[in-house]
Amino acid sequence: MVAYFSYSGNTEKVAKQIADYTGGTLAEIERETPYTDVNEEGEEELNSNACPDIEVNVDNNVDGESSRIALLPISFQNQCCFL
To answer: What is the bridge-based pairing of β-strands 69-71 and 54-58?
Structure first.
């Protein structure tokens, strides 16, 4: 399974390439309440160590998959609350 969070689409492109190469299933991580201003709200979350509620949308059943890859934008490097 290749789980990813992508606001602008860059991380999504990489996730799709990895899923195609590995045969993995895509799982999109989304913020439950979409950002209205990703720069302002994202910075506030990072500075306060906030963990927004998320939803994960999976393309297929992943019960038989033994490996998982998570892709998050660089801005989330210190924030692993999704994992």
So the answer is: unpaired
